[in-house]
Amino acid sequence: MKNQYLSTIINRHKYEFSNTDEQIARYFLSLGDEIINKTIAVLSEEIGVSQSSIFTFVKKIGFKDFQNFKLSVASNLKKENSNDGQTNILTSINDISDSDSSSEIAEKVIYSNIQSLYSIIETIPQIPIDQIIKIIEKSRTIYFMGIGGSSILAWDSYHKFLRTKYNCSYIFDYHMQLSQASKLNEKDCVFLFSHSGESIQTIELARAVNAKKGKIISLTGNPKSELVKLSNECVIVNSQDSLFRAESLTSRILYLTILDIIYVNLMFRDEAANTRSLMDIRDALKITKNSKKA
Fold first, then answer.
1. Measured distance CA(186)–CA(215) in Å, rounded
2. Which member of 43, 63, 130, 255 lies 3.0 to 4.6 Å from 69 by CB, making a disulfide possible if both were Cys?
3. Among 252, 234, 22, 201, residue whose Cα is nearest residue 129
4. pLDDT 10s digits, 201-244
């Protein structure tokens, strides 16, 4: 049976894998729950790699040795099996079949999103929240930019951060983004969104920002991308794909949650000033409401 915990910890590091690591990862994922019954010697023979390669692999995904890895998988398997018969629902959105009812599919989509959100908790120590806030606090203007689907994340983030005391700007058109980048300096910062981290336009935009000494805070799912190298701070967003939900779509809720984390932290760094800014916006928007009393 597919093991969601195993999938999560492996996919979190997939961009770091060598060809041998990928071979081991595919076999581990195909075994699922059965992996807890395998010894490292048996796995070595079945996969066709050395025991040292397997040992290196489990260390790369965060464990001190193979036994520690198996204990962790077994422990989480026990937790899943104690979920009052909901193991299949909690396992993965990939468990959806054409025989499921509309309500069952709805439940599995919801539980899959919940599982994704839980995965953020484990990665919170790796999110450079304080470093990102320091960059924002020193910035003249905060820009939010993305290409294609990532532009939606940039727009939502702009809408959120506009409530803070900081000057914010969102630019949709790529040519306009490049034009604005030419006017930046070291007092400006740009949030760049790209799940693949490989979008040519996003990379060129990052280079343009760097050329003017602007600060880059990037959010991507690819820790080995050129975008990461060009960024002052970076948040790696890990997600899983499924048959009808592209990885960039399933990860959207994770990106929005991470921006919520940064936003709330930022609001409480200067609560009084940020509250005033929020109230000013609410006052400005009053004219859009129907003021007639019933």
1. 7
2. 63
3. 234
4. 999 999 999 999 999 999 998 888 999 999 999 998 876 554 44
Residues in the chain: 294
4-91 classified as CATH 3.40.630.30: no
Q: Where are the domains of the chain?
A: 4-91, 127-285
Contacts of 89 (CB under 8 A, 6+ apart): 95, 107, 108, 111
The span from the CA of 128 to the CA of 216, in Å, is 13
CA distance 45 to 289: 70
Using an 8 Å Cβ cutoff, are 178 and 191 in contact?
Answer: no
Contact 10, 28 (CB under 8 A): yes
Return the CATH number of the domain spanning residue range 127-285.
Answer: 3.40.50.10490
Q: What residue ranges in the chain does DSSP mark as E strands?
A: 141-146, 168-170, 188-193, 215-220, 233-236
Other C-beta atoms closer than 10 Å to the C-beta of 7 total: 19
In contact, 171 and 180? CB cutoff 8 Å = yes
| pLDDT tens-digit readout, 239-289 | 655 444 445 456 788 899 999 999 999 999 999 999 999 999 999 999 998
Distance between CA atoms of 195 and 246, rounded to whole angstroms?
Answer: 11
